[in-house]
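lol ok so funny story. i was supposed to be doing the assay writeup but got distracted and ended up predicting the structure for this chain instead. priorities right. anyway since i did it might as well share w the group, maybe its usefull for someone
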Amino acid sequence: MSEEFEVENAMDQLIAGGIGQNESEETPEQAAAPEQDEMGAIQDDLEEPIGEPEDHSEDPARQRDRRAERMQQLANRTAEAEAKAKMLEEQAAFFRQQLEQSQRQFQQPQQPQVDEYLDPDEKWRRDMEVRSNQMYAQMADMNDRTIYASKAAASPVHAKYADRVEAELSKLRAQGQNATREGILAYLIGQDAIAAQGKPTKSSQRAAAAAAAARGATPGIRSNVQQTERAPSTAAERLKGVQL
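and the output, tada:
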């Protein structure tokens, strides 16, 4: 009896141990389930479309047309951006050239060495004011030059004094001064009139010649013929030196 009891007890222990082992250990299918879930998620991510989903039901020719249209739009935008960049570069070069010319023509007095103590905003405002003044002076000079050139095309006086006006204007600007070309023209004409006051003019010379001709004498001409002795007018003078 004891042997049978021991055998039954051992069988019960084996059965109980097998059941506990089955409950605690995972089956191969259960162990592989998480890996399958993870691989499925990765596959789903890879299968998701990138960008706009394509309509596979759309005609392939239509798809090609849409791609070509997008490429053309991109090319147009690129060309437009390049054209704008080129235009901005040309404008910047033009303004740099104009600024250099204005700086050469209109030299501004040097600022005191206090830049390091100036507020950045104040320094920026000062520089902008200087540049705006230079640009305004250049525009005014171009306008004045155009006006004088248009008058010189129709007025001989303006054309005659053109070179002298430019020379006088350059001299004034070298001294830190400025004036309009019309003002310089009036000044030069006045100076010439003052200088000509002590000199005989052609009209005065012609008037003097006409007056001399009316008197029967040629003005400004001396005769080189020796004058003969005056004939005696009285009898005593006629008999003077005659021996009787």
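The CA atoms of residues 84 and 184 lie 44 Å apart. Confidence is low (pLDDT under 50) at residues 19-25, 45-52.
back to the writeup now i swear
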